[in-house]
Amino acid sequence: MNIPFHRYHPLRRTQGIRDILCETRLNPKDLMLPLFVREDISEPVPIKSMPGVVQHSLESAMAEIETVYAMGIRSILLFGIPRHKDPHGTAAWNPQGGVQNVIKAVKSRLPDMVVMADCCLCEYTTHGHCGIMTTRGLDNDATLDCLKKIAFSYANAGADFIAPSGMMDGAVRAIRKGLDESRHFGIGIMAYSAKYASALYGPFREAAGSSQQFKGDRKSHQINPTQNREAILETLTDIEEGADIIMVKPGMFYLDMVTRIRETIRQPLAVYQVSGEYSMLKLAAEKRIANEGDLFLESLVSIKRAGADIIISYAAKDVLRFLQ
After folding, report:
1. DSSP labels for 228-270?
2. pLDDT tens-digit readout, 101-136
3. Contact assessment for residue 151 and residue 162, using Cβ atoms and an 8 Å cutoff
4. Which of 8, 135, 141, 214 qualifies as a FRET site for 304, CA 20 to 30 Å off?
5. How far is CA 112 from CA 118, 144, 158, 160, in A?
6. 294: domain CATH number?
7. Catalytically annotated residues
């Protein structure tokens, strides 16, 4: 019997050959850098659970943004840590808040930088939950009114996109309606549509200062990791309500959902390589389990290969160095 024999090694023999045949390419413009802006500091504060990541002052945030812009990154995602917190997170819509001031500074100095602002209450409330809490638990609909106020303040500051991350039912519709009513027709929405109740968010809660008084968990409103059809349904709902960009979060353990959602929708798709993923890869590199550059490049290529248009990663700046 004549069994066919195929040679694949010629396609892999040298780095030059592998480069010209590369199917999945990372570009600096694929990457979005998350930044934490803290109001009560004048110097950057390192985040112990996230090596190499800091809470920024206004000045250090702008220095970092100008640096990564020069390197080729063209989009950022801002999170705020206020000077004062209260049960309703009112500092989140302060026109002179940390995030609002960074947005204004970026748009003044780097108007081409795409600025996305996280729209949630967890960093701003004394209890650390994503919405308004009552004796009966989280009040979804009361939270929507707060999200509209936050979105309005970000839009007035000059943000390009509002990014509601709390998984409140109807959040996209409420924000879109509020933006339209205030005639902010050009402001987009990046929806955290498939945000799973993951064990990988732990370091973020230190970074965002949202865990100190936290009681309970977010499993009542984030997607159960066992679900796939539900995530697609949430995604389609957000699109119907006016979302411009869809997000899957986390990345590493949910690449199957990235591909399934990519095959379902035509909207731009973002994937968030979250704090736990970042810290695990950093620690593996520190322990010399594997090379740091190889780890991050392979992890981000896997996200791009699965179907992401935008990759949100704390390693975005480092990855540019590894790409060289």
Report:
1. SHHHHHHHHHHHHHT-SEEEEE-SGGGHHHHHHHHHH--S-EE
2. 999 999 999 999 999 999 998 888 888 788 788 778
3. yes
4. 8
5. 19, 30, 12, 10
6. 3.20.20.70
7. 195, 249
